[in-house]
Amino acid sequence: MHYLTAGESHGPQLTGIIEGLPAGLHLSFEEINVALAARQGGYGRGNRMKIEKDQVQIVGGVRHQITLGSPVALVVKNRDYSHWSEIMDPLAQANEKNTLRRVERPRPGHADLVGGMKYRHQDLRNVLERSSARETTMRVAIGNICKQLLAQLDIKIVGYVQSIGSFISPDLPQDVAEIEERIQQNDMRMLDNDQIEAVHALIDQTKREGDTLGGQIRVVVENVPAGLGSYVSYDRKLDGKIANAVMSMNAMKGVSIGDGFDVAHKPGIQVMDEITWDQGHGFSRTSNHLGGFEGGMTNGMPLIINAAMKPIPTLYKALQSVNLKTREIQKANVERSDTTAIVAASIVIESIVAIELAKEILETFESASFDRLKEELDRYRQEMQAY
Ligand code: EPS
What we know:
The protein has helices spanning 29-40, 48-51, 81-84, 112-119, 125-131, 136-151, 176-183, 196-208, 238-247, 342-364, 370-386; strands spanning 2-6, 13-19, 56-60, 62-63, 66-67, 72-77, 156-164, 167-168, 215-222, 252-257, 275-278, 282-285, 293-294, 297-298, 303-309, 320-322, 329-331. By secondary structure, the chain is an alpha+beta fold. The protein has one domain (2-386): Chorismate synthase AroC (Chorismate synthase, AroC fold). The strands form six sheets. Strands 8-7-9-15-10 form a five-stranded antiparallel beta sheet. A four-stranded antiparallel beta sheet has the order 1-2-6-3, covered by helices on one side. Helix 1 crosses helix 6 and helix 4 crosses helix 5. It is globular and about 75 Å long. Ligand EPS is lined by residues 9, 46, 48, 80, 132-134, 137, 312, 314, 335-338, 341, 344.
């Protein structure tokens, strides 16, 4: 399975095509729209999210809510395009009026400057329109389809906010249902409700200062069969593929598995997960420091993937930049933005991990028909248990 997205932040629409989904998969479009709404939410988002009401349209590959095995084509319209239709018109020739909102003072930390240098753009709007995290809308739609596929194979996944500023979730539950219940009780997708008021205050204060915040995200996946991915070649290691995909999300600066960077300063006895066996489950581990991966393969324990997001680079209190035309030192362009998009990012990273897992499963097992895929996976699970 592979996919492609296209579309600019203030262009007419976002478009996605997924190739390689099995036929016979039942899809709920309501569920995709719920995920899109969740991506728009969270405390600390800016005004763009008040304009948009993201809804997916399916324009290929599905009939009567069931996939056909042909490419699935998706569209999400940008409502904001009505305000930008002249400036973003794909067909009109450039003139004085439709080039008014030029961006010439690149924002430090954004793709603006290097994107302009690489693609020879003098108006950096040509970079920011595509490098904007608006693109992740389509990845959430595609990710939710993959999440539905995984759910129908009894694999559950959830992404949540592990930390923002100095507020860190105290414990590490690995039970997806428990995590879901706890994060639905607040608008930060955090485990600990008691912290939320203080987190809101931090975001409000940061906004007043014209500044932004990043944070950490954790994704937990439950009931993944052992043996996905492979140790035999570097490019078949599933933890590597997931890390690559997580880093493809805007603003991610770190990715780790299980105890992550902490393993570097712990002795081996505290890091390895001891092996146990029982008749009902077969082999398992007594702990999960390694986050469900050994030798680049899933080991049957829950997957734990962590991601570190840098603060959004668009600052209302602009940092130093250089004007592309005059070469004068000036403040960077100020574009409308969010104080933090960490909640949105937790949905996006969850989606990205779902996509990578779905890809791996569809590559490992026969995948023309969803029912046959399920039968094969069930047989494989039995074999793993009996080993
Ligand atoms: C985003 C849409 C964008 C930003 C944000 C994420 O909308 P606009 O640029 O119209 O305000 O809110 O993108 C950025 C912060 C960025 O630097 O690109 C979205 O849909 O998630």
